[in-house]
Amino acid sequence: MKTALVVMAAGIGSRFGGGIKQLEPVGLNGELIMDFSIHDAVKAGFNKVVFIIRHDLEESFREVIGDRIEAVLKQAGVEVAYAFQEKDEVPEGVSVPADRKKPWGTGQAVLACKDIVDCPFVVINADDYYGREGFKKVHEYLVNSTDPSEYCMAGFVIRNTLSDNGAVTRGVCRMDSDSMLTYVDETTGIVKIPDADAKYGFRVEADGVNIDADSLVSMNMWGLKPELFAKLEKGFVEFFDKTKGEALLKAEYLLPMYIDELIKAGEATVKVLGTDDKWFGVTYKEDKPLVVESIRKLIADGVYAKELYSDL
Question: I need a labelling partner for 173 at 20 to 30 A (CA). Which of 72, 120, 259, 270 fits?
Answer without folding.
Answer: 120
